[in-house]
Design goal:
By secondary structure, the protein is of the alpha+beta class. Helices cover 34% and strands 35% of the residues.
Amino acid sequence: MSLYPTITLKIFNKKGKELSYYRVGSRQRFLLRLQAWKKRDCHYFIRVGYSKRFKNEGEYNNKKDALHALRAFTEKSLVKEYL
């Protein structure tokens, strides 16, 4: 079993075309990639998998909401409970 949750990010344009896909285990690397994304008018899909049976996921229309969700999904207390 992993010590970190698996984090997946998909970035889409407004027409639904996938622009980028990232899957990493490090929260810090994931935050840096999300913050570095420069294109506007994107749609973000984030999934954080804690185990085979438990995950959090959501779709967001702006980077601010996506960053807020990532921070909430990777809180230490939540990660400890499910890993």
